[in-house]
Amino acid sequence: MENSSYYTFEHFLLEKWGKPGEGDTEEKRREKAFQRFSHAVRNKHIASKQTMRKWFSLNGCSLPSREHILRLGLELGMSVKETEEYLTYGISEPQLQVNDYMEFAAMYCLEHKLGYLEYESIIEFYELETENDTEIRQTNHTERMLNLYQEVKDYEKKAFMIWMCQNSELFKGYSKTTYDCFCSLVEECLLSFREQNKNALENTLLKTDFSEWAAAQEIPEEDRLQAIPRYVKNRKRGKRHTLSKELQREIREDYLFAYSSQDRLCDLLIVLWEERIPKKIDMQEIRLTNRKYISELLSISLQKKRQMEMKRELIRLKKREEAGEVVSEERKMLRRALTMQTQRVRMITRSDLLLLTQYVAGERYNEEINEQAKEFDREEAKEYFIYFANTILSSCKMRLLDERYRLDNELLSCFREDEMILLSKLLQGDF
Fold first, then answer.
1. DSSP reduced 3-state for 23
2. SS3 for 310-374, per residue?
3. Which residues contact 14 (CB under 8 A, 6 or more apart)?
4. CB-based contacts of 280: which residues, under 8 Å, 6+ apart?
């Protein structure tokens, strides 16, 4: 499938705002759809005109943020269902998060066509009236929150805001189900990756005189593992029995990945992803990882707590300023800090999950066929991955696999006649 044929946000917008047969060319269709969209959002301050043109692939290409979609839904009086369509099918993000107080409030406003200003007033009231020392429940209660929303969605606005403040411990700000899925996949990847590196280390050591060296040093069998770094150091300095730089590097890396006292999570994900994906690859659905990004994902509860504390303090400073106090410099510094903190608050994406899911599904399938002494079956392996991936995506309120989208299409293209290759290798052009 050619890149231009993949289903993108541009195509989603054309379905929503375009008309069949309108315009002689594809660009004219996009232009007319944009004009219709632009008229609907006039004076709504969704985003700059140039930015919104790029959503239609006019004068460039870009994807709106989740915040853009929420504001669009509120300003245009969309329903909860339609807003979630923009999120899941338009920009491939999760449905509205009932565990997040901002999105819980957005659902209420969408339900009652209240608009963005009313939404902001609810958020400001909540952030001002809730206490800093509230103990947030770090538990899985999405279904309970959905049921609670059904109970309170018809409350009057003031009663709804008071209810939110009285139940602030429920709004942890992220999906614990998604977080647990991510952590579970990471743990399984890490165990498998360690085992692979142990085997690789054993095979590499067979190419050396490690066994002879350990015997000459009278190192007991049970202590030889710990002696590997000493062996490399010895052979690096030795004159007679030297190791090539390549063997030194292989032994050090395999030993580090297989036996490090730390979990080496960042190294695992970077090896699977960032180092293999060419930076020139342009896939809107994929977010390349790095150590900082992974660290922020795994500390999401702490990052959300810090963000909330800063927001509350900013509102208090605003009230003090309105009362006549001079706090402009404090507000300026805090706004800057809040901007930086907001950038640290991450949401686990489909690509975060699917990267790990592909690796885990491949390892599980290979283990099963090895136990059964079966040959690799391309269609069977593919169906195994699809079922596994869709189970996870469904539990995380995300769009299921759909080969019209590039990421999904590339993942389903990783199944060859005799093996499944990682997406990173496919995009790098190794296959």
1. coil
2. HHHHHHHHHHHHHCCCCCHHHHHHHHHHHHHHHHHCCCCCHHHHHHHHHHHHHHHHHHHHHHCCC
3. 29, 30, 33, 56
4. none
Nearest to 107 by CA among 48, 55, 160: 160
Query: Using CA atoms, how far apart are residues 110 and 401, in angstroms rounded to an integer?
Result: 28
**What are the distances in angstroms from CA 18 to CA 21, 49, 83, 323?**
9, 18, 18, 50
Question: If DSSP codes are grouped into helix, strand and coil, which group holds residue 98?
Answer: coil
As given in the structure block, the two tokens for residue 96 are: 């509205």
Token pair of 275 as six digits: 């180092």
Residue pair 128/316 in contact by the 8 Å Cβ criterion: yes
Helix (H, G, I), strand (E, B) or coil at 151: helix
Mean pLDDT of the chain: 87
pLDDT digits (tens, 9 = 90+) for 43-98: 999 999 999 999 999 989 999 999 999 999 999 999 999 999 999 999 999 999 99
Helix (H, G, I), strand (E, B) or coil at 415: strand
User: What is the DSSP secondary structure assignment for residue 223, as one 8-state letter?
Assistant: G
pLDDT digits (tens, 9 = 90+) for 235-277: 877 666 678 888 888 898 888 888 866 566 666 665 565 544 5
pTM, to two decimals: 0.85
Closest CA to 124 of 326, 336, 314, 347: 314
3-class SS at 293? helix
Phi, psi for 116 (deg, rounded to 5): -70, -40
**Separation CA 304–CA 176 (nearest Å):** 13
Per DSSP, the residues of 55-88 read HTTSSS-----HHHHHHHHHHTT--HHHHHHIII
